[in-house]
Write a structure and sequence with these properties.
This protein is an alpha+beta fold. Helices cover 43% and strands 20% of the residues. A hairpin with a 3-residue loop joins strand 5 and strand 6. The two termini are 41 Å apart. Residues 8-20 have low confidence and may be disordered.
């Protein structure tokens, strides 16, 4: 089955020689990430204006871009390269980068951003790497990549069902990159092993009043060693990760249950209701009560 073109009619007509806008952007950003193992953060497609640039900057999630037409430049502190139609590149969380459309033939691409505890492990089993964050045309059939990204876009939505559908489509896309990879099951960085062990402990015990010291003890390393490991692989501290995880669970309870704010605070590991409210507002920009009201 061939790849369906999910861009607007006016954009598709441009391929047949009819009028076509110089640039466009259609994107969808999810409201909440319901799934901890892997969640789609955003998905979309864009035809850039000449020399359109993002960065230098840092993303807090992974993001795969597949180039449909044109060309541009992708740069990190370690590498810089020109990429064109058929090539695919990835943005790593916590890595400073920039990318820019060509001045004569600006690129048109489709993308999907994602995060979660499974993300790093999956990407390590593809041909993407921080030293070479791109896969050139011909390595993987381009229609399989485009079709995978299209499927994510077509099932987009902010419900729990849509989140599961988007994540399912994302897993299928990532399996394509794994299938065509030359390097599979690479040797793990020992620090990554500690991070994954810590993530597992947090996912099981976040509802208890655990501390970063508890997490480090479970991983079998010092608090400072755990901090460095998280900074290297997650771009954030263990404390930030733990708090974000708890707030994510609190959001789910606020929307799906009638529990009081105080009960929810205790349910996600906050023994101090005032501290919970401050932490929640810092992350979400509004109080737990207000958050619940707008999601009724």
């Amino acid at each position: 089955m061939g790849t369906r073109d999910f861009r607007p009619q006016s954009t598709r007509e441009g391929r047949a020689g009819k009028s076509m806008p110089n640039s466009y952007k259609h994107s969808y950003k999810t409201g909440e990430n319901f799934l901890n193992s892997l969640s789609v953060y955003n998905v979309g497609y864009q035809k850039c204006e000449p020399e359109y640039q993002w960065g230098p900057g840092v993303r807090d999630h992974y993001c795969i871009h597949h180039i449909l037409s044109g060309s541009g430049y992708y740069s990190t502190g370690k590498s810089s390269c020109r990429l064109s139609a058929g090539d695919t590149f990835i943005l790593y969380p916590g890595v400073e980068l920039q990318y820019q459309a060509d001045s004569e033939e600006p690129w048109e691409y489709t993308w999907a951003g994602f995060m979660g505890s499974d993300a790093a492990s999956i990407i390590r089993n593809t041909d993407f790497s921080k030293d070479r964050p791109y896969i050139l045309k011909g390595k993987i059939p381009g229609d399989r990549i485009q079709d995978g990204l299209e499927r994510i876009y077509l099932v987009k939505g902010n419900t729990y069902e849509a989140s599961v559908a988007m994540t399912g489509a994302l897993y299928s896309l990532l399996s394509v990159f794994m299938h065509y990879a030359d390097r599979k099951e690479p040797e793990k960085d020992i620090r990554l092993t500690y991070v994954e062990k810590a993530e597992s402990y947090i996912g099981t015990n976040y509802s208890y009043p655990i501390t970063v010291e508890d997490v480090a003890a479970y991983a079998g390393i010092s608090r400072s060693h755990l901090f460095r490991s998280f900074q290297d692989h997650m771009g954030k501290s263990p404390k930030e990760y733990l708090t974000e995880y708890r707030i994510k669970q609190a959001c789910r309870l606020l929307k799906e249950t009638d529990l009081s704010v105080s009960a929810i605070a205790y349910s996600v590991g906050f023994e101090n209701n005032l501290y919970f409210s401050k932490a929640f507002k810092k992350q979400k920009g509004l109080s737990p009560s207000d958050y619940r009201l707008i999601h009724l």
